[in-house]
Amino acid sequence: MQKNGLLGQLIQGLCCLPGVGPKTAQRMAFQLLQHNRNGARLLAETLLRAIDEIGYCRECRTLTEDSLCGICADSSRDSSLICIVENPADVWIIDQAAVFKGRYFVLHGRLSPLDGIGPDELGLDILEQRLATGSVNELILATSSTVEGEATAYFIGELAGKYHVQASRIAHGVPMGGELEFIDSGTLSHAFNGRKQI
Q1: Is residue 83 within 8 Å of 97, Cβ to Cβ?
Q2: Largest CB tally within 10 Å, which of 21, 60, 138, 169?
Q3: For 30, left (φ over 0), alpha (ψ -120 to 50), or beta?
Q4: CATH number at residue 113
Q5: 11 and 94 share a domain?
Q6: Within-domain flag for 58
Q7: Mind listing the pLDDT tens digit of every residue in the chain (198 residues)?
Q8: pTM for this structure?
Q9: Strands 102-106, 78-85: pairing kind
Q10: Residue 42 lies in a domain
Q11: Is 198 part of any domain?
């Protein structure tokens, strides 16, 4: 079978998706072509439209097809409370939990000097402009618990302090229903340091 023909290109193209290797891509390609050509056509058309029409919200920088996303356009949300996240997927995850009723700011990464990612690449100048208006009371830092994520949270916390804006960090530690024997020492350390009184 020709691996460089159209079928090979389709399989290779599907490999660009995270977690999809050659075998999974091959199964996807054959499934779409043999059993669901209408679904494949719809997928292709939707993907093309999404590439052309989805951009970034001018306020929070998440993915949206409008200049202002639905969250930023929602007047019932607390605009004085901003949750800082690393990527648009984090907005979806937090919003699905339906516990946060403020707004977001998407960094599109985290500080990593070795990779050439500094404050300017994360849009922190835009965030600083919002802080300077005096309309923000609190930042909730929901960056990852990696070294870069912690450094990013610390940097933003310092920036918030400059404008007398309260900054808090989401808790990290033992997951709900987690068993201690399966928790690594770093996570357990975070859990002990972030404990709260009951």
Answers
A1: no
A2: 60
A3: alpha
A4: 3.40.1360.10
A5: no
A6: no
A7: 457 789 999 999 999 999 999 999 999 999 999 999 999 999 999 999 999 999 999 999 999 999 999 999 999 999 999 999 999 999 999 998 878 999 999 999 999 988 889 888 999 999 999 999 999 999 999 998 888 999 999 999 999 999 999 999 988 777 777 776 777 777 777 777 776 665
A8: 0.83
A9: parallel
A10: yes
A11: no
Asked whether 47 and 89 are in contact (CB, 8 A), the reply is: no
Is residue 144 domain-resident? Answer: yes
Judge if 96 and 42 occupy the same domain: no
Same domain, 86 and 153: yes
List the domain range (segments joined by +) for residue 32: 6-53
Q: Are 88 and 109 in contact (CB under 8 A)?
A: no
Between CA 61 and CA 88 the distance in angstroms is 8
Average pLDDT, the chain: 90
Residue of 125, 118, 90, 117 lying closest to 104 (CA atoms): 90
Q: How many domains does the chain have?
A: 2
Whether the CA torsion 183, 189, 194, 198 is positive or negative: it is positive
Contacts of 70 (CB under 8 A, 6+ apart): 64
